[in-house]
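For the sake of transparency, this paper describes our internal protein records without simplification. The record that follows is passed on verbatim for readers who wish to inspect the format:
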Amino acid sequence: MYRENSSATLLQSAKPVSHLEDIKARSRLLRGTIENGLNDAVTGAISDDDNKLLKFHGSYQQDDRDLRDERRRQKLEPAYSFMIRARLPGGVVTPDQWLAFDDIARRYSTRGLRITTRQTFQWHGVVKRNLKATMQGIHNALATTIAACGDVNRQVVCSVNPHLSGQHALVWEWAKALSDHFIPRTRAYHEIWLDGERITDEPEEEPIYGNLYLPRKFKMGVAIPPLNDIDVFAQDLGLIAIIEDGQLSGFNVAVGGGMGATHGDETTYPRLASVIGFVTPQQLLTVAEAVVTTQRDFGNRSERQYARLKYTIDHRGLEWFKCEVEKRAGFELAPARTYHFDRNGDDFGWKQGEDGRWHLGLYIESGRLWDANDQRLQTGVRQIAQVHHGEFRLTCNQNLVVANVPDQERGRIDDLVTKWGLDGYKTHSAMRRNTAACVALPTCGLAMAESERYAPELLHKLEAILARYQLLNAPILLRLSGCPNGCSRPYLGEIALVGRAPGRYDLRLGADFSGQRLNVVYRHNIAEPAILQELDELLRNYANDRQADEHFGDYLLRAGILPPPGPTLTPIVWLTPATAV
């Protein structure tokens, strides 16, 4: 297996490396001076350099932006706190883990538990003095936060129906194997957070990542057709499970997906992953490592806006990338197998697996589980966890599956779901059930506009339009993002709002309902009145003119309201490779 590590030469590239590369190089494998910063009681923050390293440990430093101006007037430092993200391969959580995570949220977090679009949990509002205790609590629950953020392979996502068949369960096992394979090997995490013993005379190395880790974040996901519930083409490495005659034959390999962009910079763009071949299960880890190490050695370390795998591929060419992966893997990829995706999104209500057990899909608005605004969702799921003997599955669409429920326990689960208001999936509009929103304000430092907090208000107004045109049951994908970074995968929404400034968004339209076509900008930088006016007219026309079973995004193209799909990427120009080796 190819593991030649060029980290020592990367700092000698044709262009100066970015400041973050220098921070990683000096970090002593992610240690930096994080411990010193944690022990500094004078401030609620840590240094900027250590905050960048903290991401590799699964946490971001943030502050409450609602309070910034007032605290500035009072000559106080910002209201610093930390977001912590768990690494939960495939979004699997046992009831005991759920209760532990819930307890952590009630002790240390200000906004409950939040299910993310990476199929895991985030805790928001953890102050510095509680950061270590929170990390230890997650560890004691047999989970971790390492590599949930940072320039590494992050949370590995996987289709959430593992019990539909034994083969579905096997696919999840491979997703977990991928996650385990790419966890950083540094002992820094155990030393800083778990009071691990320092071993000073034993050599330490990162056999896959090297001492500079990756040029930028890296995301993997595994989908099981015909349901593309993870948006597999949004992943740096997307794997499409091929199940033939009831057996897992292997995976189609797709590379170069990514949702991030920068307003006003056409050399940055969202991109769908490109399918380059097929591998057997036994070849999977070898090929995944070849993809990661190719990005490690050839990704742009000078300009972080071009550091994702999608830009490496578009800069050097897809055929070059495939050949390099095959050279490192030691074999050629087989031709891709046939597959078909019907849709993305989640299933709601009760579904029965082949073993006779049941799985209940619950809609969780923006993934936020907390007791606020006359809702007691956090308490409700906690009470379910106290009696449930199966497991929970978090979804990439911020929803929740109560999994592995025997027939005789369904009534008790249903009673708790109804008691605590978790049964909204029965009455919500189809658009609401197919909406995702990023956190945005007040905690995200990148947010330009509201997202999670705005979604309920916007949906209420959109549902009035949908009701007017008898479209409440029409499934339409809506995505909201507070900035163009794309955490909620807005570029795959049939309707999407991407924040530009407080109260102002780009209105994007025209993705398909299976995650295989990007949307386009329909109107730039408009406020709510214009957004509602535009959508009112479009939805009226859709109601009158749609064909049988035609989705909204497809209608917009067929009717000529949007141009036909063209190239989904814009070539970028680099004078020289940033990290030639």
